[in-house]
What does this fold into?
Amino acid sequence: EPEVTQTPSHQVTQMGQEVILRCVPISNHLYFYWYRQILGQKVEFLVSFYNNEISEKSEIFDDQFSVERPDGSNFTLKIRSTKLEDSAMYFCASREKVFYGYTFGSGTRLTVV
Amino acid sequence: GQQLNQSPQSMFIQEGEDVSMNCTSSSIFNTWLWYKQEPGEGPVLLIALYKAGELTSNGRLTAQFGITRKDSFLNISASIPSDVGIYFCAGQTGNNNNDMRFGAGTRLTVKP
It folds into this structure.
């Protein structure tokens, strides 16, 4: 079964450093998303991406965040200057068409120290 | 934004018991979805509901899309230990972005 692949599975970074979280969505999917989940809390929407541009972003997704689809397969989330409160699981998701359920990756656990 | 209220927050049940959890919202949704998340994994789609009043089953799982389009429930019958996990409802408004919003989750523990 097709999968959404995320790397790395765990990243530890120092506060103030830049991190890039990588995702390879399912190949025929057109809609891409990033969500985050702080430990023990609910899954929160960050950003959606379609047709090579951001279609919606939440209030969490401030100027420190950016997304890119640099080629036909990767979808990245960059945090420019990490803060302690950015520590969370970050999930990438994709789907083929609107109204379809999303397929999530296994997540990247980001720890900011 | 669209707020989803999911309850209960947690459940401790005996193997074999039936389970029911629900989500409500003050907003209307065009799609309701139920996901299960196990430790260290991303959410996995269990059931998707696309029409008000729709009742859909997936094995021992049954979910319904409320007539008002503001609520949904998930039932699990004859629970087994591998049902353990966090169950999230999610709603989509059906606007151009169709982005999901999640409920806070129901943590299910099944005692053998």
Q: What stands out?
A: Chain A touches chain B at residues 4, 31, 33, 35, 41-45, 48, 55-56, 58, 91, 93, 98-107 (CB under 8 Å). The radius of gyration of chain A is 13 Å. The mean pLDDT of chain A is 92.
